[in-house]
Specification:
Order of helices and strands: HHEHHEEHEEEEHEEHEHEHHHHHH
Mean pLDDT: 80
Largest sheet: 11 strands, mixed
Shape: elongated
Number of strands: 11
Low-confidence stretches: 223-241
Distance between the termini: 25 Å
Number of helices: 14
Strand content: 5-15%
Helix content: 40-55%
Length: 430
């Protein structure tokens, strides 16, 4: 005998009960799926953003804070290290590339980061999608998501700790801390990197030093009392193109919050890390900090997944109780089938499918809702952090949905066995 016509009739008779069961199961599945997929996407996105930062050197303090400032462009008030260390690293035979990183200024909510043209191009890995790299003080290169256009004048403001304007929008706080008479001209734009640096404005580090009256680290150029002329700014005097980047030969080399080092070899990287973990400096690989952060993130994920799974089990138990009550109301129908010659197995199959089908449909729907929730969460995280997140379902999410579907199918046997084992006479009398 074909049980499906009767199963479909039973489901139609449930009206809103069956869809409600499907939705509850789907929400439980979607929660666990979104948690797992989003955590995995966050790991991949944050690790990719740190790929160009082999070794970071800074002043002793919190490695996590320095990592968030230098790699993920979350500027904070950090102690400075002696700028002369840049020259020492340039001359070190274990070092392939060196780039200072300086931050603190903003413009329309975008952080202005002082560095070198070599690092802006990621040491030759990328080229500007528009224009060119900066070649003189007063020039700037835009990240892919910065709303300035080439040729625009960029007015810097001193950043305020704890205050951050929405990217692309200036506010009164920023206007109050603007560097009067100073500015940059956008000469290029970088391609999309999929990192918070897409929202940064990159300028020569000499400009950052000079605009704060610290000189520019080069002999005979700039100084605390020297004017900071900006090439390309309408009406501003032009001065000859100066040399940019290390080595710096000024009497005074201003300090920097961080230095990014690209070693020539793995052995050299570990030797540099050991050397600069003493003598008033701190050195670390971003990966070692990320591992500890991922560990904490994984613990939170595990707690949320367990809570989600527990919630799903409670929902499945509630579904079983509902089906027990529904089957009790249908006992005369099943008793009539038995009296007409239907075997116990047929009643068992009909009642089991009546509970298992909504559960299975809810699990399938939950995977779809999980994908939608993951995409929505990824969009929120990208808007908040600038990280490029590529979220997708993995075998873990499919396994979770399949496991809950299997558990629900097993639990659905409880009301089915109760209905199949009920005596015919007792069912008809009821």
């Amino acid at each position: 005998m074909n049980p499906f016509p009767m199963v479909l009739a039973d489901l139609r008779a449930l009206r809103w009960t069956a869809p409600a069961i499907m939705l509850l199961v789907a929400l439980a599945i979607a929660t666990g799926v979104a948690i797992g997929a989003q955590e995995r996407a966050l790991r991949r996105g944050s690790a990719a953003a740190a790929n160009d930062f082999d070794l970071i050197i800074g002043a002793p303090g919190s490695q996590t804070q320095l990592l968030m400032s230098a790699v993920y462009v979350q500027p904070d008030a950090l102690p400075l290290i002696d700028g002369r260390l840049i020259n020492a690293l340039v001359q070190d035979e274990r070092v392939r590339h060196v780039a200072p990183i300086a931050f603190g200024d903003v413009s329309r909510g975008y952080p202005i980061i002082g560095t070198t043209a070599d690092f802006a191009a990621r040491w030759g890995r990328i080229t500007p999608s528009e224009g060119r790299l900066f070649a003189a003080q007063g020039e700037a290169v835009l990240g892919a998501d910065v709303l300035y256009r080439l040729g625009d004048r960029i007015a810097p403001s001193h950043g305020v700790t704890g205050h951050g304007a929405k990217p692309g929008q200036a506010d009164a706080e920023e206007d109050r801390h603007r560097h009067a008479g100073e500015g940059y001209v956008a000469v290029g734009r970088l391609p999309r990197l999929g990192s918070p640096w897409d929202r940064a404005i990159l300028v020569p580090i000499e400009s950052v030093w000079d605009i704060h009256g610290l000189g520019n680290g080069h002999a005979g150029e700039g100084g605390a009392d020297a004017p900071f002329w900006h090439q390309g700014v309408a009406g501003a005097p032009q001065r000859p193109a100066e040399r940019l980047g290390p080595p710096f030969d000024g009497q005074r080399v201003p300090g920097v919050p961080a230095i990014v080092v690209k070693p020539k070899s793995v052995a050299g990287a570990y030797a540099l890390r050991a050397q600069y973990r003493q003598g008033g400096t701190m050195a670390f690989f971003p990966a070692e900090v990320l591992v500890s952060l991922y560990g904490a993130l994984g613990d939170v994920r595990d707690i949320l997944v367990v809570a989600s799974a527990s919630n799903a089990v409670l929902i499945l138990a509630s579904v079983v109780l509902v089906m027990v009550a529904v089957n009790s109301l249908r006992r005369r129908r099943y008793g009539t089938l038995r009296a007409l010659g239907a075997p116990r197995s047929f009643v068992l199959l009909v009642t089991w499918l009546g509970a298992a089908v909504p559960i299975a449909a809810g699990c399938a729907l939950g995977l779809g809702l999980g994908v939608a929730a993951t995409q929505a969460l990824s969009g929120l995280v990208e808007a908040r952090t600038g990280l490029s997140l590529s979220a997708s379902l993995g075998w873990g999410e499919f396994g979770q949905a399949a496991g809950l579907c299997l558990l629900g199918s097993v639990i659905a046997l409880v009301p089915a066995l109760i209905s199949a084992r009920r005596p015919v006479i007792a069912s008809l009398r009821g």
